[in-house]
Here is the input.
Amino acid sequence: MKKQALITGATSGIGRATALRLAALGYDIVATGRRAERLDELAAEIARTGGSCRTLCFDVRSDAECARFLEPLERIDVLVNNAGLAAGLEHIDCGDTADWDAMIDTNVKGLLYVTRIVARKMRSAGSGHIVNLGSIAGTEPYENGAVYCASKHAVHAISQAMRADLLAAGIKVTEIRPGMVETEFSLVRFHGDRAKADSTYAGVTPLTGADIAEAIAWAVQLPPHMNVNDMVLMPAQQAGAYYTHRKK
Ligand code: NDP
Ligand code: 8X3
Here is the structure.
């Protein structure tokens, strides 16, 4: 039987690239996101290469929607908890509470809702692998990023704790913690302001979604006795949240 991989937030960026990469490895894909057309395009692209992709269009912020769409799934071998966002980049006293809710509800609560359902299925199956998308922001808080950084600190803590919770059940937990990856991330962070989004990557060759997908593909292919707990990936021009070497 082919292995099944569930990827949240597969309509764009890292999630989309991971769906394509795992499909190429022979996984049957279950791809989620809120943009139905994007999901249809992804499924068609995977089908053209002879793969299989089921799509589930829902919002991970809703516990009820997570339950409605995910409970019926029979088996999930790999879960990639990728759906997430940064919204806004400003000092704490200028923050928008709607942005804060979106980040905490998606990056933290959504990840928890999805994991709870899928981990139960993996525990019943006696195996599984959960890959959480953290960030360098999960250990390096930076100016203007209090709530996004807090949400990724939460992902970092949750990943470590869930690794312990699921140890005896034979379920691996890997946290992938990228630095700068060019996706729709910055466009979303700056609420659609293309110029600001592009300036994030000025003078830098950033990572791509495919680069991160390659790391995830490696981690999920390791033999049963071996796990990657935590992987930090950055462009060669970045040394951390505070250090980026931009070429003129
Ligand atoms: P993108 O904006 O390109 O992709 C984000 C994905 O998350 C989309 O598919 C989006 O789908 C989905 N998503 C967002 N909100 C929801 C929601 N409420 N319900 C369901 N799906 C949702 O960004 P990236 O690919 O860069 O980001 C993926 C992950 O990687 C995030 O967790 C991000 O924090 C993390 N990350 C990104 C870095 C970067 O520099 N790009 C660096 C470090 C970590 P849709 O809108 O269709 O719902
Ligand atoms: C995304 C990377 O540096 O914008 O998590 O926080 S950063």
